[in-house]
């Protein structure tokens, strides 16, 4: 052993990764643990799901970052327990269970899809939180279209090409817009020779009376208008009450035949936070001090989407990537401060605003919460900021070329149905069984 | 119905695809059927398996080709029966079984991996014939390395990073070379901080006393020398006699601990050829007339790897892509000839030679069976010819950029462990079970 303090970081998302990078070359040993061997640039997941980007374009192998620094190491596995008394964590890996001690722990495990305890939704809906989710959704939609092309029953065919997205936040808006474009620019033309009458519906459901809750009224309306101008059917005040493999029912009794329900209506914190043994806040978030230490601990930091910290107005900081990045960096710096005998710093959020894209030349942006942009200008800003935020020159190049290509050709080139996962196979079986009835 | 003759093509590989393209805009209706919704550029499969290329870079969505032509349509499914009396085929699709009639049938289903009836090999070995195979192998190797990094037992660790390739043909040579490069340029550096002693072995086994049987002596030797200069251990006269999940045994009694056996030692024709009701030739190939009609039929053509046709010297044409392409085009033209009342043409193979690549700056080529090239020049020729042979400008651009990137950076960027298929999960379970014993 080197005698250097050992920092263990759980989670290679934005918070964990930026914490690790901050500790590179410092006089500490760092171990980062993640279930995947790559970091995922989550804002572009929906573009993988809709055939616009390759999975590898938004994934960055974690070891690539780490090989440059001798004091960083990576372990692929799932952390299943945290023992803050013994100061170690337990990890489930392909090589069996490992126990790894820490001097300082940074927990940055992020959120998972929240199905609000509804088993039927969990069984039948598609989440969009992980790279695997995106590939599964892509396979599923392409498979349904392949099937729809050869179905004579009009009702069934329309059901197969009806795609429902739940949740009027940025993910729901971006996904529904991109799904409609996938249909409108690509699939419509490719299936026309077989089924001239094949058409798709993309429906966005939002339980509240407006989209994009955190945005000002003007941008909410602009987002809705732009989505509708694209072809997406936006239903507000629409709550899902029942979910079946082949249809959903809304609270007002309306029924929609569909085999595709994309669920982006909520997140909850990853289950690991319960192992910290502290009382959790709303949404399962962990209360932290402004220095990112878990309340009552002096060696366990919690950062990113799972941290609960109030801003000056008493509102919790939002579950956004810039917050996660900045908290990860702060926790890492506070470990270095402690090791060096310096006082810790407190979190101060540098916030440049929020934005969401809707489709080709369509977006909304609220820059510094002062400037409201819509349409082409907002879209260009979105493209530019996401491009520079990508990790790794190769990913940036790959995404840039794909975007230019997609823009010029109206194409979506990554239309591969690869080995279906169990989820999708199970669903296909359900679909087939359904029709046999 | 249009009254036009209906040509059904089974298989979207090189033979089937070039047949379909030849019939584009002609006065026939064409239906092409494939299990996948894309055509695979198989010569580069090993680069997907070794993290150098994205799956989408070597896959071309079949509908993209077809949307340009009104008379072509595509159906994703598996043909399970051929009735040459009733002139129809039976297809298993996601929409159930379909029966599709034909006026002319072109069967181009290609080959599958031949395990020579050995169940143990089939269960434990990795084939490399399909895009799914490549992704499964990539996941598997990356997972083993992640695991090896945290294993303390030296013997087990070495076994996890010992990769065995069986078959000294082009696929085996290319795969073993690329596997060694993946280790040597990438994995070696990325795991060094954890396990400085982690090292990989790549072993190529060939049952015959030389590699590359169809090549002249000088090129065979050059290939072996180049492989060995790279770091691959080449074992000739080496027959596999036993395969276990964690080791293989050679006929001479030598045992090699490994969890990765890539099987590129042989192919056999796809099982569908048995439905044609004709006596099959060696390797299960279907005897055809020089016009590509199945012997004794006047409306069923068989082309590509599954066709058995002798050249002037009495040898069957080799199972190579140029043969498949040219036979597919000929069968299509002979259908047009028949429809127009013209006589059919016979097959005449335009053969420009053979080549195989070994790794960075290493290859062998036998141009027009006269000029023998080795090393850098042969490698450049290989790169150029494969680049221009790729379908679609976007794939060409994507492969070109990846190659330049890989060459300049010595990197292999597509190192993602994505949702493992059942095959790989089963194997992982086996590996874990093995260790527990």
How many extended strands of chain A? 24
Order of the strands making up the biggest sheet of chain A: 5-2-1-9-20
Identify the CATH architecture of the largest domain in chain A.
Answer: 3-Layer(bba) Sandwich
Query: If you consult CATH, what is the topology of the largest domain in chain A?
Result: FAD/NAD(P)-binding domain
Low-confidence stretches of chain A: 420-437
Give the strand content of chain A.
15-25%
Distance between the termini of chain A: 65 Å
CATH class of the largest domain in chain A: Alpha Beta
Quaternary state of this entry equals: homodimer
Mean of all residue-level pLDDT scores of chain A? 91
Number of distinct helices of chain A: 12
What does the main sheet of chain A amount to?
Answer: 5 strands, parallel
Q: Which structural class do the helices and strands of chain A define?
A: alpha/beta
Portion of residues in helices of chain A?
A: 25-40%
Rg of chain A, Cα atoms, Å: 23 Å
3D shape of chain A: globular
Largest interface, Cβ cutoff 8 Å: A-B, 63 and 61 residues
Brief overview:
The structure is a homodimer of 437-residue chains. Helices cover 35% and strands 23% of the residues of chain A. Chain A has helices spanning 14-23, 45-49, 62-66, 119-124, 131-148, 154-160, 170-190, 217-230, 321-339, 375-389, 393-409, 422-436, and strands spanning 6-10, 29-34, 38-40, 59-61, 72-76, 78-83, 88-93, 96-101, 104-107, 111-113, 162-166, 201-205, 233-235, 240-243, 247-250, 255-257, 260-263, 267-269, 286-287, 300-302, 307-308, 353-359, 362-367, 371-374.
